[in-house]
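Why do we care about 3D structure at all? Because function follows from shape, and shape follows, mostly, from sequence. That is the central idea of this module. The next example makes it concrete: a single protein chain, its amino acid sequence, and then its structure expressed as tokens.
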Amino acid sequence: MRSLRKILISSLVLIAIGILGLTITLFVGNFTAGLSNFGAGQGYTFCSEDMGHMIRGFFQSEEVVGLSFKEVEDITDEYLKRNNLSNLEVKEIMEFSKNFYIEVVEDGTGLGAMELLVDKSSGAIFPEYGPNMMWNLKYGMYSRLPLSQNKIDMPIDEEKATRLAKRYLAKAHIEEYVSDDIEKFYGYYTIHTLTEDGDIAGMLSVNGFSGQVWYHSWHGIFIDITEEH
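And the structure:
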């Protein structure tokens, strides 16, 4: 438990530093060049509105807007439509105490495209922190792949990613277990973690090139999950 608390604190500090940097970038960009999008590559790039919602979502209030899974799916569909991402669809929605997590996949390939969050205090939708921002090579903040590319080869496959995830949880003394539910994204994998009783606890991601593991510490307590679409 102490190790998990340290990981949570470290993750929150890193996210806070990242958000501060994004805030400064957003301010400077808007001030100097009328910035409209973030991203260094050819794929989907984050817009300034995304960044604003991410900052507010990180400093979430205690108030909660009652949202159903159907409402969250509608919010997501509208977000994808607004960003001209009609080739993507919702695969899974998970409700946690702090936010809703949405897994979005490509309609044609079935590959994981992006991970989104809906702020439970405002209903705002935005790209998830962490791996989705930093490791996603097609739809992330540092995307390098064109939207026309529909496959990716990574030196670390699903089996090795699962082993690395298990090793990480054991080394960090996190009393959670790796599930068989592993989703491949453009640059990394995301895997559900389970309690001793086999219930969903949370999730982590494994970089498909470096093998680095990133525990998703910003969700809170797991509440419910939708059926796969």
